[in-house]
C-alpha cells in the first residue's frame, strides 16, 4: 500500500503517512513496568469520558496514570483534572503539534517520554492509559508505545461504522461501541453493529457501552482488570 496524500481540516497542509499496517517501531520489551493501553477513536466518540470512567473505576485498586494527546491544547487533560478523577501528578498532557496518528504510531517520542517520565517520578505503576487525539478509522498505536489498544466508536455515526472497517476497528484488542443510549434517537440498530463488528473482527472482543447508564464503564474496566492480573 502506498501512502496517500490527505488532510484533516481546511487549514492543514496536505501530507502523507506510512502504511497504517506497518509499525515502524520495535515492540515493547517485557519486564517490570506498567501495562500500557492506548485508547483511540474518532473525535467525539467518548474517549476522554471513557478514560475518566476508568480512572474512577480503577484508581482506588491499581496504581494508574494517564497521558492525553491534543494537537494544540491540553483540553482532554484539563477535563480530567476538572473532574478530579486522578491526582494532578498522575495526568500528563502531550501537545502533539501534528495529526493524531503521527504521535501514536509514526513518531512516538513525545508520548514515550511522557509515559517513561510518569513511571520514573511516580514509582512502580500498574497501568498507564494513553489517549490519542481524535482521529479516523485508520488510527492505530505503535506496539513500541503500547501493549494493548482500545478503539472507541459511537452510534451517532450510524450503524454502518463497524461495517466500514479500517485498522482501528478491525485490529484493536477491544472495540468499544459507545453511546448506545442514543441508538433510538439516531436510528442505529445495535444488532446490525454487533453482527458487522463480529464479521470484521472475528474473535476479537467488542463491548457495547453507555456511560450515561454505566458511569464506571464496567465491561471495559473488567477487561483491563484481567490484563493487569495476568501480569502479576
From TrEMBL:
Its main location: cytoplasm. The keyword Nucleotide-binding applies. It comes from the Bacteria. Residues 37-206 form the CobW/HypB/UreG nucleotide-binding domain. It is found in: Cytoplasm. Residues 1-33 are annotated as: Disordered. GO terms for biological process: urea catabolic process. GO terms for cellular component: cytoplasm. Keywords: Chaperone, Cytoplasm, GTP-binding, Nickel insertion, Nucleotide-binding. GTP binds at residues 41-48. Homodimer. UreD, UreF and UreG form a complex that acts as a GTP-hydrolysis-dependent molecular chaperone, activating the urease apoprotein by helping to assemble the nickel containing metallocenter of UreC. The UreE protein probably delivers the nickel. This is Urease accessory protein UreG. It comes from Actinoplanes philippinensis. The gene is ureG.
